[in-house]
Structures are given as structure tokens and as C-alpha cells.
Write a structure and sequence with these properties.
By secondary structure, this protein is α/β, with parallel strands linked by helices. Helix content is 43%, strand content 15%. It has a domain of 215 residues: 3-Layer(aba) Sandwich (Rossmann fold).
Length: 330
């Protein structure tokens, strides 16, 4: 079976790529011209150069493929030019889906995010059916993924495109080369730079379990359905405490009110815009998101896909060990 994957140079995509190879797929990876290809090093994968906003390159990349795993996304909580996120996450997704339809692929797995899902105000775990509307979306990333998933669902309904949707929660683990916002938090905690915390909650999952979930969705998922790929609901204080136990660094001792952190985020963003040197350490949308408890249930994926996960201590340890081995942790 010949499979095209997008986003294979990235964190989640590189894990999915490795799982596809373990499952015996012949894999072709769509890679942008200037992408960092360290996550592809030494792997038996065909690399083709293209761009999600270049339809000709997409038609050429998917030619002869039976399946598509569309994992690529622009995952940033702050950008100086927000239109870039929408071009990649919305327009790029529509483009690759049309290319898949044109090529007559038999199966598509689309990587969405729990960012598109509703949350329960009482902090109890949300699921795939928890009500949500566009106005609930905080940050351009969440809005773009919400719109992209809606477009995918439209193509399933109107053109019978054979897509299964997966919604990873907060992946952690090896090969987070950028790193992701969660990866940066782990690096800071493991380096002793996070003595304080805010009240928030996340659902952590090992990135390799997310990859296995993609293949389970490919095999057993229902067309047009979405499946949360998550694992452990934890407060930020609990996460930092676990990391302190792994690294030997001090546990966090201070709780910071959100309203105290928000002005610092505005200052950090203003400084980042002035210097134009990447994402600031604190972002306004990140602080606003932290006010929400982002807990999720994986019951549907467990029952319909057979999805299961490893202990959170292993996920956190694998992340710390990889960052340490690759020089991210001082």
C-alpha cells in the first residue's frame, strides 16, 4: 500500500511516519523546500518537494498513492502575520483534500486537534460531542483548525471523501525539534526555570501513542467520525511536580493568578513584534487558554478503535531524555 504523508518532518508527523513504516506501508513524504529534515534521517521514505498551497505539486505528490495521512499544520500560539496560519491550516487542508479526491484515494486520515472541541465549564472531561461554536475558539491556531475540520467534514458530506478525523490532545515525547509550546514548557521545567504555575489543566499523551492511534483510525475508524487521541488529564501543578521528580529540580512553589500573568504576556508579544525573532515565551492567547481546564475523554477511541496509552511518567521521561540528549536542556 502506497501512502502519502504530510507533516512528516514535524513532531506528530514523524511519529506517524515511523508507525506507517512499521505497518508495512510504502511511504512518500510531502516536504517543503526549506524544511528541517532531521526527523526523516535514515528512514526508507520517498521525499517529494511541494507545498500545501501549490495544487500542482499536490497532484504530483499524491499520484499513485492509495491513502493519505494529512498531519501537517502550523502550530503556533502567536504569529506576527496571522494569515499564514490560515493559509496552511485551512487553505492547505482544502487543497490536499481536493487532490486526494481527484486521485481517487481509498482512505484519508486527517489530523485535527482537541483545539476544535468544546469544553465543559465544570472541568469534567469533554468528548467528541461536547457542544462548541466558532466564537469559543481562542487563538488563530484554534480558529484555523476549527475552520479546517469544518471544511473536511463538508467534503465528506458533499463529495463522499473517505476521511476519518483524529483529534490529538497534547502530545509529548521524542523528536520535538521546534519545539512545540508544550515542549518548551518541559524544557523550562527540566532546566529549573519554572518555579511557579497557573491553575490550568491539560490532557497529556505520548506522541508515539498518538501515532498508533492514527493507524487504528485508518484501520477501524468510521468515515466522517472524529476520535480524541489523548491519555492523562492533569493540572499544570501535577505535570510540573512529575517533571521535578524526573529531573531532580525543585517542585513549583508559587501559584500565579492569570490576571497577574496577562500584562507580562502583552509586554512579551510587543517585544517579539519589535525584534521579529520568533514566538515570545508568554503569549496573550496562551494565558487566556490557561484559564480553561482542557480535560478530555478517550472513551470513543478506546471502544471503537481499541486505542490505549502508556503511563504519563513514561511520556514525560521520554520527552525529558530526548531534549537532554539533543542539547535542549541546560
Amino acid at each position: 500500500m502506497k501512502t502519502l504523508i504530510t507533516g512528516a518532518t514535524g513532531f506528530v508527523g514523524s511519529a506517524v511516519l515511523r508507525q506507517l513504516l512499521r505497518e508495512g506501508h510504502t511511504v512518500r513524504a510531502l516536504v517543503r523546500q526549506n524544511s528541517d529534515q532531521r526527523n526523516l534521517s535514515g528512514l526508507p521514505v520517498e521525499i517529494v518537494t511541494g507545498d500545501l498551497n501549490d495544487r500542482t505539486s499536490l497532484d504530483q505528490a499524491i499520484a499513485g498513492c492509495d491513502t493519505l495521512f494529512h498531519v501537517a499544520a502550523d502550530y503556533r500560539l502567536w504569529v506576527p502575520r496571522p494569515y499564514e496560519i490560515y493559509e496552511t491550516n485551512v487553505n492547505g487542508t482544502v487543497n490536499i483534500m481536493y487532490a486526494a479526491a481527484k486521485a481517487g484515494v481509498e482512505r484519508v486520515v486527517y489530523t485535527s486537534s482537541v483545539a476544535t472541541l468544546g469544553l465543559n465549564y465544570d472541568g469534567s472531561p469533554a468528548d467528541e460531542s461536547t457542544p462548541v461554536v466558532y466564537d469559543d475558539m481562542i487563538s488563530h491556531y484554534k480558529r484555523s483548525k476549527f475552520l479546517a475540520e469544518a471544511e473536511v467534514q463538508r467534503l465528506v458530506d458533499e463529495q463522499a471523501l473517505p476521511v476519518v478525523i483524529v483529534n490529538p490532545s497534547t502530545p509529548i515525547g521524542p523528536r520535538d525539534i521546534k519545539p512545540t509550546p508544550t515542549g518548551r514548557m518541559i524544557i523550562d521545567a527540566a532546566s529549573g526555570r519554572m518555579p511557579a504555575y497557573v491553575d490550568t489543566g491539560l490532557n497529556l499523551v505520548h506522541v508515539d501513542d498518538v501515532a498508533i492511534g492514527h493507524l487504528l483510525a485508518f484501520k477501524h475508524g468510521k468515515i466522517g467520525q472524529r476520535y480524541i487521541l489523548g491519555a492523562h488529564n492533569m493540572t499544570l501543578k501535577e505535570i510540573l511536580t512529575e517533571l521535578a521528580g524526573i529531573t531532580g529540580k525543585p517542585r513549583p512553589r508559587f501559584r500565579l493568578p492569570h490576571n497577574m500573568v496577562l500584562p507580562l504576556a502583552y509586554l512579551a508579544e510587543a517585544w517579539a513584534r519589535l525584534l521579529m525573532k520568533g514566538e515570545p515565551l508568554l503569549t496573550v492567547d496562551g494565558v487566556r487558554l490557561a484559564k480553561k481546564i482542557m480535560f478530555f475523554s478517550t472513551e470513543k477511541a478506546e471502544q471503537e478503535l481499541g486505542f490505549s496509552t502508556r503511563p504519563v511518567i513514561q511520556a514525560l521521561s521520554d520527552a525529558v531524555n530526548w531534549f537532554r540528549k539533543n542539547g535542549y536542556i541546560s
